[in-house]
Amino acid sequence: MKGQRNIGMVAHDERKEDLLDWVQHNLQALIPHRIFATGTTGGLLRQRFGDLTITPMKSGPLGGDQQLGSMIAEGRLDMLFFLIDPMAPHPHDVDIKALLRLAVLYNIPAAYNRSTADFLITSPFMTGEYIPEIKDYTPYVKRLGAK
Known about the structure:
alpha/beta; Rossmann fold; five-stranded parallel sheet; 40% helix; globular; MGS-like_dom; Methylglyoxal_synth_AS; lyase
């Protein structure tokens, strides 16, 4: 992966303002990239940051988290910024866990808090060449004779 990145962005309700503030602070670094954001988060980003290329997905509880997960599994999402509210229950917790699991499984850079997001956005790999190491799961897939 080099140059323009496809970035997933999600923020729980209590973290949306944090994400908007973070995007404002890092706007110039984000402009060259494509952002795919769930529901309300995507709408807020579009309202405030017309310079960004934003593709809105469905709301997280309505399938947006799963849409981003599908993009990860298909190799179409390069990184994920997901500001999580650890203090609130989430009715779609299983969808959230599935999204986080896919980010780990496919070894994409993922930030779940602002500090990690700061480290990712300032990394030389953000605009430079980076080829993530992907584990070969062929033995797992073939364990029961699947092809």
